[in-house]
Design goal:
about 40% helix, elongated, 12 helices, alpha/beta, homotetramer, nine-stranded mixed sheet
């Protein structure tokens, strides 16, 4: 079955894999998924540590909830940065992927609009910088349909030009389960893999390719319409109460099942996206949280 | 089966009703549906003439396509206005329903931003008005969650205050079939019925209630996620090729089927909406077309 | 001399009038101006109590500063409401004047987007309302160039339709002194007078006209280019150091001076406005403060 | 006297220089200014050919006017490109300077949002490209306060990474004369000099620095408040009718005059900008014209 998801945790779910640890902190749940070489092949996600922060029990329209989430993300981000040997004398670039003009794809650019940058002060006015403030710059490279340039080429060009020790990249993701949308934050040291997100972005942003650590922060803002179709189909087919009714289907061979699955999703290309009615306001609030957490994790 | 659609033509479809006429004009198709008393009860749509303009073969990112659509809508609108005995000495109010801050619900307010108004010139500078220009004003009443006032109360208040002969109301609609989204324009003399559209708007805007003709122009900009679920489920269940596999289901009693249908859509409340990735740009282009058509239909 | 200002305090200044009281609260200064019948004629401002809150020593990009201002305005607003015998069983309408699409004129509509409304809950779900919450609704009537209807007609229509005890109206104002721009909040029980603000709005919103108290909250977001011209001209002409150089001018008769003054401002019609580079961000922050203060003053 | 202007033509004006040619094409005027080595020092503008297109007799809210301007700019741009030996086998980068979130500074990024890019098609799908289409990409590098990186560093990085033959850079400019604002388009082969525009952008984008031709297209969207002050002061002081009144001033020594001039502008730092009330709509229309002209000049 073809799962259109950028969340390692969702991909692993289908395997009932043991590579996950659950923790709870008041309303916020944390799921850690270690994707090793073998698992990487199985679920088609890059090797690395994936942290899925489940905020579905928080209300992102409430300022106290937002503060709690921000603090949680700050702490988690600090831990990941430390693990990557990044400290406040390291020089970082924050990259916001996505298209500002397509609401569910605008998370990255919106974070860049809000995040604190200091690199120019280090260059031009070093004395004005307080202790604990680290050297950081930011960029929204745009999307290929608007710029004609691959993101990877722009990022590589910048890395070659200015001295950098690490990258934090923010992107809108795609989930399989609609209940994850705007209610999940994934942070990983594996970077961003090709074809991720709402838009069509290509080529991998990762330590392998760029030579420096790449921390990716992503929030699923959409699911494919085809995910709704297949999900609700199996919701019924696999329902114990209706086992008897769908026996024939369940006894089909995998390739026969697959043919029918393809029929289920046949009407929905990747242009049809499922999102929440309040997506504009959600993106505003979530970009505030992410930029705040980055600011607090980098400067102290 | 519960069809969440504001399109009379879709509702009628399920009845294989004969109340429809198809016409083709180059790339644009026109479907007329006359909803009489009986049909009104069956499909739960208000009585009236419904014109569904199918623009799925036009490209709304192409300026020549947009011009063709605008001309077509202008002509159709003129015909409907004539039928309602509205001419250029009639005084009109254009109402844009919806929420400017929720992209798929912003069609109405965006049309109001673009449409030409003349009422203030008739009041303050009558000599500046050319022959053929008619007296028209416009309003975006906002949504109840933001104003605390029902749209119907605001519109009624205005009608009581200023002299008006007719209303044109623009709203974003909900379709059942995803292929209709941003590719269909419905125009009707039956007004707008409660609960229509993306947001939750209440109470009917119609000639019955307001005492003057109400022409409604609507474009479906979303479908419910539950529509995707049920649609794709039946796409497979009713497929002749799999008839044999799903015999047991098809032999169930209606109330048993309904229980399973409810299971199919159980995960998707009305907060989950399906739309197109390019919704922001589409709404921009479509609001341009609608405002242009209204301008050309009213002033000549 | 023609002072283009909506601030009573500025108008009075030129008279070196005694009708003003200054108070200081930490960084925030309060200037009270009582405009009585006589003063009203002299300065061409409607009779009433004018409170000018000077926030020029606060930083409206700092969240703690914003909170301080919000608290101050809340307290002041409560005092004014009490004086007008408005309590939490009174029913209010909040009106945001101005044009959302012209940044310095968008303060009013932006406050309406943010302010809490409750009237629909009182109508539909009374049990859900906590004690202390008052009945309030809100409206952005738009500008005449976009709607073709005078604001006053829309407001009157609403008042005739729904039961209301008072109105709070928010508007962007024009100052004479550029240092007031985005650094001053004027609150008055005299309503809004014609021709105020950035755009051209007509006819008065006041208790005299509407029959219920009208509290106006305004922030100067622009000055006329002609104000800059005349202000800097007199800055030099009246400078003691250059008294000798400009003796001849200072000895001219008033009507001769006026002719030259007219020459000074002749190039600048009301279409040229002076504002701050950061106007977009300032309006965002100030609309947050105003809506927060209204919420806290009305519901407790 | 310190003229805050990015327009070579305005700077030259004050010298009553002969380096200018005037041409008229219906409603559009063209002023060519050749800035050679000597003039460059005098007016503090980089050497090069400056074309100032005066569109003050056109109405940029009228679609036919916009089309006329677009055609004129297309033709002029083609001429300049030819002169720089750029043809449709050359590879170009279009750079939009400025800040999308500050309206009068958003011209550059808005053009980038609208301009056609083709470079990715040349890389990925060469067969889809029609004859006459040239290879072009685009970038909005943001402003230093948001990115922490100098524009020049980002542009240089891109140039080093991908093969490019020329750059077209778009920027919002500052004029001295308010009548130029949104009514003038300056095109030059001299690139963009430091400190230009509304924001604070640093270091020069020019052929000298980047090694490839840099065509700059700029539109003044603001003037400094201090320009209004000094302009209106001299408007009166230098008026023949009042010669007698201001004799004493006119007989002052240059350094005495300068001291008074400094007094005139002393209240207005560069944060106070003068613009037009309709700036939001103007920028939308002008960015449409510029992107259209670039598209037509590059692909044919």
């Amino acid at each position: 079955m073809n799962f259109n998801t950028d969340l390692a945790s969702e991909a692993v779910n289908t395997l009932k894999s043991k590579n996950k640890t659950y923790k709870e902190f008041a309303n916020i749940k944390l799921i850690e998924t270690i994707v090793d070489k073998n698992l990487s092949k199985e679920i088609n996600k890059k090797e690395g540590d994936y942290y899925l922060v489940d905020i579905s029990n928080e209300d992102i329209n409430d300022s106290e909830s937002l503060l709690r989430i921000e603090k949680f993300i700050t702490k988690l981000l600090k831990k990941i940065l430390r693990k990557e040997k990044i400290n406040n004398s390291s020089k970082g670039l924050i990259v916001g992927l996505g298209n500002l003009n397509i609401t569910p794809d605008s998370l990255g650019p919106k974070v860049i609009d809000k995040v604190i940058v200091t690199r120019h002060l280090f260059e031009l006015d070093k004395d004005s910088i307080s202790e604990g403030v680290s050297n950081v710059c930011a960029l929204s490279p745009g999307v290929m349909g608007t710029t004609g340039i691959e993101n990877i080429d722009i990022i590589k060009a910048i890395i070659d030009k200015i001295s950098l020790d690490y990258i934090i990249v923010i992107d809108a993701l795609k989930a399989f389960d609609i209940n994850r949308v705007n209610k999940t934050i994934q942070i990983t040291n594996s970077g961003i893999s090709p074809g991720s997100g709402v838009g069509n972005r290509r080529k991998e942003l990762s330590k392998d390719v760029l030579g420096i650590p790449v921390i990716a922060i992503g929030i699923p803002t959409v699911v494919d319409a085809s995910s709704i179709a297949i999900n609700s189909f199996y919701n019924v087919i696999n329902n114990e109460n209706y086992e008897d009714i769908f026996t024939k289907y369940n006894n089909l061979k995998p390739n026969q099942k697959q043919k029918i699955e393809e029929e289920v999703i046949s009407n929905y290309n990747s242009n049809y996206i499922v999102s929440l009615k309040e997506i504009d306001i959600d993106i505003e609030n979530l970009s505030e949280v992410i930029s705040g957490a980055i600011d607090h994790a980098l400067h102290f």
